[in-house]
Every structure is written in C-alpha cells, then in structure tokens.
Design goal:
Layout lengths: L1 H18 L4 E6 L4 E4 L1 H7 L23 H16 L7 E7 L2 E11 L5 E10 L1 H37 L5 H33 L6 E4 H16 L2 E6 L7 E4 L1 H19 L3 E9 L2 E7 L7 H8 L14 H7 L3 E5 L10 E7 L42 H4 L1 H10 L13 H10 L4 H27 L6 E5 L1 H4 L11 E5 L9 H21 L17 E3 H12 L17 E5 L1 H15 L3 H11 L24 E2 H18 L7 H10 L5 H28 L7 E2 L6 H26 L8
Parallel strand pairs: 7-9, 14-15
Antiparallel strand pairs: 1-2, 1-5, 3-4, 4-5, 6-8, 9-10, 10-12, 11-12, 13-14, 13-16, 17-18
Length: 749
C-alpha cells in the first residue's frame, strides 16, 4: 500500500510541476497510451470545447486519437533514427493545427536505465500569432516588391535621362527633378510603412529546423520504400555532403512522398534517383528517373493538389507547402549539365547559418520560366540621340499593362502599341528568350482587347445570350510580332427561346464586333485584309453554326477547301464565357478523330511552300521590287507552325502556341529529343530575326515594319543559321509527306 501511495505522490508532484509550465504537456508510454497530461493540453486538443469547465479524461487514450497518426509516426520514426545515430538532445518537431490554433509540437523520448525507449513526452506550444505573422510578413514583402517597382523605375528613368542629355534645357531639367522628388516621397512612404509593420512582425517570425539534405533524403528514401514500394537512390557530389536547408521536416518529407507518388503513377516506374548540390545560395534537389519527362502543365496541376496529410497549417496543398519553405519546383527533360535523365528539380534556399546569421528572403524562378523584370527601356544604341520626354515608367511592361487596366476611356488605350518596339528591343538585346517576348506581346494585346471589350459591353448593355470573343491566327497562337493584323471572331450561345432567332441575336454581337475591331485598328492592330474579324457577319455566329463550319472544314474534299481556314484551328478564348470555346474545342477534337482525309489535305497545303534556298545552298531572293533581293522570313516560319498544328491536332493536343505544341509532341514521343530541340531552336531563330527586322524599321528607319529581310544584311553566323533553318523546313515537309500523304521522299533528320 505504501508503494502505491509513493507512486501516486510522485504523480501528483509531477502533475503539479507540469501544470506550472507555459506549454501543454502529455506523457505517453512506449505504445502511445497517455499516462499523464495537463489541463492546457485538453484546451488545445479536444474537439468538444462547448463546456471547458468540465474536465475530460484523456488518460488511457492513445495519443493518435488526438493527434494525426501520420504526425506521431513521423516523430517516432525521426526519434528512432536519431537514437540509432546517438544524436544528443534527441527531439522531433512538427506543426499541428487544431481548431483555430497553430501548435509547435515537440516529441522527446523517455529512456529507461538501460537506455531503451520506454515512452515519450509531447510538448505543445501555441504559435498561432507567430504563424499569422509569418503569413503577413510574406504579404508585406510581396507588397513591397510590387508597389516599389513603379516609383523606382520612374526615378531611374529620370536620372538616366538627365545623365544621357546633360545639356537639356532648364524646363526639362525641372520636370525630371520634380519626378525624382515626388517619386522618392512615394517610395519613402512605401518603405516606411512596410518597415514599421515588418519590425513588429519579425520578432514573432518562426524559424524552420536546419536539416542536412543528405540525411533528409535518406529519410525520404526509407519512407517512400515503406509507403510506396519505391527504390530511391541518393547520390551527391563530393562537395555537397554538408549542404543544409531549413524546413519543417514532416511537411517537407510529405512533399517529396507526394511527388514520388505522382511520378510513380505518371511514369509507371518504381525506381528514382536523388541528386543534390548547391548553386550560389540555393540548394537544388533533383528527383530523376529513366523514362519520359513530365510537362510543366502537369506539374502546375499537381501544385494545386492536397499533399495528402492532415492537421497541418498553411501547407495543405503542394503549392502552399513550397511557399512556406520559399521554394519552387520545375520539370526538366534531359537538357542540362547535371542530369542526363528527366527530373523534377526543387530550388530551396540553403541554410548558411554557419557563415551568416541573416538569410535574406529568396524568390527564385527557374530559367525556363517566363520572367519579366527590370526592363531597360532607355536604350539609344541604335538611334539618334534626341530627348524622349516619356519616362521609363511609361515604357515598362508592367506600367503599360497597369495603365491599360486602369484606363477609363478608349482614348487612353490608343497609342499604347507604339511604346512596344523600344521595350522589345531592350529585351532582345539583353538576351531575353523569344518565348518570353512573344508572351509579353500577347499579354499586352490581351490586356488591350479585354479592356476594349469591357468598354464595348458597357456601352451596348448586357448581351442577350452568353458569348465568347476569340482570337485566331498568330494572336490565337500567342505569337504576335510588331507587324500584325487582327484575326478574331464571336461565338454566341444558341438561344433556347425559339423567339430569339439568329436574326434577332446577331445584330448585338455585330455592333460589338464593329466597335472592338475599329478600336483595335485605332490602337495599332490593323484590320484583317481578308475580313476575318468579329464585325464580319460570317465570323459572328452562334455555336451551332461554328460547329457546322468546323465539320465542313474537317470533312473538306480537297486541300484548296482548307487553304484559308487553318488559322481557325488556332482559336483561343479571349473574353466572355469560356465554356463556349471549351465545347467547341471538344467538338472539333471529336470530329478530327480518325478522319485521315483532313490531315492529308492540311499536309498537302503545308508542303506547298518551297523554302527560299537553292539546290547549292544559296538563298533564293526576290528579283523584283518592292522587296528586291529579300526573302519573307515570316513565310519561312509558317511550315514549322503548320507542322506543329497538324501533328498536335492529330494527337489531341489542345495547346495553340507553336512552342507549346512542339513540347507536347516531344512529351508524347511524336518527336525525338533532337527533333524537338532543332525545331524549337529554328522557330526561335526565325522569330528573333522577325522582331529585330521590325524594330529596326520602326526605330531606325521610321517606316512601317514588314517581314522581309535582305540576307546580305545578316552576319555570317546568322546566314549560316538561317540556311540550317531552311534545310530543316525541307526535312519536316518530307516527314509530313511521308506520314500523311504517303510520299517516301525523305524523313526529318
């Protein structure tokens, strides 16, 4: 009896001690049954808080009844691994969310006199305000980055203008000084506001746990074998042994397990490889495999999915988990010096706490992603030095888009297009990729079109039925240059009301098309010479008529019947009801399935064009004015566009951009890696030449741009590359003839 009383007395002393601790405490045996807990743990963990006065018995219950089993297993597994390695101060930490609270949870082992695991203690600390502060800090940094860009650009532009033209008159000097003064006040206010709030929040900023990448990946490898039946081999360079990152171990392990599960499902493989190294201050971790790559689009879909864990805060989805760790992921085919296999690459700030105490926030985007930033728009290298009164902020891409979006009158839109050439010129001369440039031009055009449609629908009133305004041709493919005309159409929904006939509905949409097309023409997008515009009654029709159009084109009897309709197969939603275009796309794809005649006719038209290169490898140029000794560089790109369109439609690819289509063809193994790379590079080279030719016409000669180039004006390297591009066009035409026409006159090399 005395022995029992002594034990009870010890328990009471222990209970009295832990009740005075600021954290909540739970003590469990080796099987996870709760032996002792305090009242604070009840407040934190119990679901029924309707009557907190009445005590609720937790003793004797398994800890997994209160905390997610996955979290507990993770903690015990990590503790076991640390004990095996004889790590001092063994502890496992994870983040737990329950009700409206965010809890930092520590699990500490209890060892008996023989040093064997006999139980564990769970310590819960409320960090709800810290978590909210972290989220607010991230928001503040984003706000700072976004709002400071415009005044900084204005200040820089004014200073550069004053340095460029030291002899400018006093009036201009005063204007630029006034700009610098006003914008510096704006910038100062932004910095002060953010700094004050950041200082209040940073003290509650929760730091993540430092991890050695090698140990982390070994844990992931072991877990993925247990959970997914995968074999994951960890390799690293000799200089990567001590690379560290900061992470919530449980969350980040589950990010990797989630990715491996998705990759297993997508590729059908059960063996993967981990490789890691450090570049500058970034730790790069690759999951690679022997097989086909995954597409960026698929990766984006995965980012929106739940990573399959419970009771976690701010990181339920893959994207949120990555953001918490200031990390991004991207997919790579076999195309860099590190991996000769496809991979998914994680970009994570490295923990360099041994050499520095403060890590500045890192926002990293892989090179293959589109990025626009710090655009140099005051570049006078190819122009006469004459003062331009427009500020950099008026020429920068972000400012242009903002001004378009904030416009309240059509007059504010007109003239914006003329500001693109300098912007594009600066981007190209600084090495920006063509895909980024065309994306910028497309985003610019889309912003103008969207704003003009907003003005038009406001002026005309609500539409009688839902509709979709679509773009076609180069704009539909997101490939507009500076010499472009408008190709667009309206698809409106068939009315279920018998009284609302086409004759009653169409006039509204024709007025809409007339307004928008006229405004586009005034804004720098010329009328289509072929009349393929929304103001043309033929291209302003209900969905049922559009289905009839596509059915007739697909089942056309001859190539001539398709000669002027290929651009319609590049249609892209621009404004209105997207479901209408989705329905038309689905209908088109269904009609195309197994209809070989269509692809034969399209191929016949595609191979009709003869590349302007002679038998002996010399350029074939025009012999008559107005473009004597020139060749049409746009026509040299069309066969690549046709090739991508035909094969994409054949294989059910819904992308419209040529480069996106080529990549999807590579992913589907229609193109080999070499074929894809050569075609993509050929297309990019042609587009680069087109842009530079047009910019030179606009900025250098002050004339309307066109697509004609004189090969003699090219450098020797450009001439050689252009000849290779034209030879490649011959090769892809041979492939088209072989695959769709039955002609065996060679294949793509």
């Amino acid at each position: 009896m005395s022995r029992k009383n002594d034990v009870m007395k010890e328990k009471q002393v222990l209970a009295s001690f832990i009740s005075k601790l600021p954290e909540a405490i739970i003590i469990c045996d080796a099987n996870g049954l709760i032996l002792l807990h305090d009242h604070q743990s009840e407040i934190y963990l119990l679901a029924d808080k309707s009557n907190p006065v009445i005590p609720v018995l937790m003793t004797g219950k398994p800890i997994t009844a209160l905390i997610d089993k996955n979290l507990v297993e993770h903690a015990l597994d990590e503790i076991n691994e640390q004990l095996r390695k004889k790590v001092e101060n063994t502890v496992s930490t994870f983040i737990l969310q329950t009700h409206a609270l965010v809890l930092e949870t520590q699990v500490v082992p209890v060892l008996n006199s023989a040093g064997l695991f006999s139980g564990f203690v769970v310590i819960l600390d409320d960090i709800t305000q810290q978590s909210r502060a972290q989220k607010r800090v991230e928001s503040l940094l984003n706000t700072l980055s976004k709002n400071a860009r415009s005044p900084m650009a204005s200040i820089r532009a004014a200073i550069e203008a004053m340095r460029e033209f030291p002899g400018m008159d006093e009036q201009h000097q005063h204007q630029f000084k006034e700009i610098i003064y006003k914008e510096s006040i704006v910038l100062s206010d932004i910095l002060n506001s953010v700094s004050d709030e950041y200082s209040r929040l940073i003290n509650t900023n929760k730091t993540l746990k430092p991890l050695f990448v090698k140990d982390f990946l070994q844990t992931v490898s072991r877990r993925s074998q247990d959970k997914l039946g995968l074999i994951c081999r960890v390799t690293n360079r000799f200089d990567a042994e001590n690379i560290k990152i900061k992470a919530d171990p449980y969350t980040f392990i589950n990010v990797f397990i989630f990715m491996l599960g998705r990759l297993k499902t997508e590729t059908g493989l059960t063996e993967f490889y981990f490789n890691f190294y450090k570049k500058n201050a970034i730790a790069l971790i690759d999951i690679s495999w022997k097989g086909d790559p995954v597409s960026p689009q698929l990766l984006k879909q995965w980012e929106s999915l739940d990573i399959g864990t419970q009771n976690m805060v701010l990181n339920i989805g893959l994207k949120e988990a990555l953001n918490q760790h200031q990390s991004v992921i991207w997919t790579y085919p076999e195309q860099d010096e590190v991996n000769d296999m496809p991979c998914v690459r994680f970009f994570i700030p490295a923990d360099e706490s041994l050499v520095q105490n403060i890590l500045e926030p890192v926002s990293l985007i892989p090179e293959s992603r589109i990025q626009i930033g710090d655009i140099e728009a005051f570049d006078h290298s190819d122009q006469a030095l004459e003062l331009d009164n427009r500020l950099l902020t008026e020429l920068s891409y972000t400012s242009l888009i903002r001004e378009i979006n904030q416009a309240t009158r059509v007059e504010e839109i007109i003239g914006k297009h003329s500001q693109l050439p300098r912007l594009i010129h600066s981007m190209l001369t600084s090495g920006t990729k063509i895909k980024t440039v065309t994306w910028l031009v497309t985003a610019f055009s889309d912003a103008i079109l969207h704003k003009l449609l907003t003005f038009a629908t406001k002026a005309l009133g609500p539409s009688p039925v839902p509709f979709a305004f679509v773009t076609l041709g180069s704009e539909g493919r997101k490939e507009q240059t500076l010499k472009t005309d408008q190709d667009n159409a309206v698809i409106f929904k068939d009315s279920e009301d018998d009284g609302q006939t086409i004759e009653i509905l169409q006039p509204y949409f024709l007025k809409l098309g007339e307004k928008v097309c006229t405004w586009l023409d005034q804004s720098g997008f010329d009328f289509c010479q072929g009349g393929i515009m929304a103001k043309n009654p033929k291209w302003c029709q209900p969905l049922s008529i559009w289905k009839d159009y596509f059915s007739s084109w697909i089942h056309a009897a001859s190539p001539e019947d398709l000669l002027h309709t290929s651009i319609f197969f590049d249609f892209r939603f621009a404004y209105g009801d997207r479901q209408i275009t989705d329905e038309l796309t689905a209908y088109m794809m269904n009609q195309l399935s197994n209809w070989t005649g269509f692809f034969r006719n399209m191929a016949e038209n595609a191979v009709y064009f003869k590349p302007p290169i002679g038998f002996f490898g010399n350029f074939s140029v025009r012999s008559k004015a107005p473009h004597k000794k020139c060749l049409d560089i746009k026509m040299a790109s069309i066969p690549i566009v046709d090739f991508a369109r035909i094969y994409s439609l054949k294989h059910g690819i819904r992308a419209t951009a040529t480069q996106d289509r080529l990549y999807q063809l590579y992913v589907k193994k229609v193109l080999s890696r070499n074929e894809y790379n050569e075609l993509d590079q050929a297309y990019c080279f042609n587009m680069q030449i087109r842009f530079m030719t047009q910019i030179q016409a606009i900025l250098g000669q002050n004339i309307k741009p066109d697509n004609y180039i004189n090969p003699k004006h090219l450098s020797s390297i450009e001439k050689k590359m252009l000849k290779e591009v034209l030879k490649k066009i011959k090769a892809i035409q041979a492939k088209l003839r072989f695959d769709f026409i039955g002609d065996t006159d060679g294949l793509i090399s």
